Amino acid sequence: MEGRHEKVVYENDRGQSLVIEHAFPFFLQKIEGVDGTSASITKTKGIGQDGTTISNVTLRDRPLAIFGSIKGETKEELATLRAQLLEVFNPKVRGWIQYEYGDIVRQIRCQIEEAPVFSKKLRSFKYQDFVINLIAPIPYWIGKTDDAEMAAWIGGLSFPLSFPMSFSVRGKQISVTNDGNVDTPVVIDFYGPATNPKIINLTTDQFVRVKRELLEGEKLTISTEYGRKKVDLIDSEGVATNAMHYIDLASEFWSLEPGKNSLLYEADAGEEQAKVKVKWKNRYVGI
């Protein structure tokens, strides 16, 4: 344990936080559940088939347990530390765990399953052990936010053509890398001016297209996360409104596959300052 950096930082949705590390007053003994992700496997067996056929694999939620100790010079100080733990790790309030192990820093969204349980140490009233049980409904640890910006290539070209013709404005194709273990959702920001902007993940052959003219100063934000899909139109004053109805029905709320993904921006019309920003957080099955 000597020389190893390991720390747990918990912050609940009320903004209350607490650090548990290899130092008092909140000493970290160990944290369980940071790896060893469990999977639910759907299998079928045909008549006369040897073995089974696996048709689907999903990951279960992630149980976590934090084991630690508190130390107080007086019984009153020990009672204050107990109260602080109970207040921050309140089962009625969800929160985030940030776990640091060496140079690795990851976060996970969690729910308190059992509030801190205390047990007295026999050698002195100054010490008490505790254990906190949590559950992470989405089992992935997430890293820092990565982003990539795509600016449109707008022409200045003129053609001596008299018949009706329209050209799609294409942005520079870029490659982004998902360094995580699984697909990860993205947040896409379209900035005006642009008409019917579209971003394609060429790796998965999926696209998201907005059927609307975005004015200068407007931004349209799309989140593709499962269970939290949303589309917001933000005007020049910073006011956001629901804009899901502007999404082309052929669109798919795509994610980045592990490894390299090729992305392409298109629009039916726009100005030189039009741009798109893609943001994501790598997801990991363990630490």
Distinctive features:
mainly beta; Elongation Factor Tu (Ef-tu), domain 3; Jelly Rolls; 2 domains; seven-stranded antiparallel beta sheet; 5% helix
Number of individual domains: 2
Give the % helix.
Answer: under 10%
Helix-strand pattern: EEEEEEHEEEEEEEEEEEEEEEEEE
What structural class is derived from the secondary structure elements? mainly beta
Q: What is the overall number of helices? A: 1
Main-sheet strand order equals: 2-1-7-8-9-6-3
Major sheet size, sense and barrel closure:
7 strands, antiparallel
> How much of the residues is beta strand, in percent?
over 45%
**CATH topology (level 3) name of the largest domain:** Jelly Rolls
The Cα radius of gyration reads 25 Å
- Identify the CATH class of the largest domain: Mainly Beta
- Overall 3D shape: globular
Poorly predicted ranges (pLDDT <50, ≥5 residues)? 153-170
Distance between the termini: 17 Å
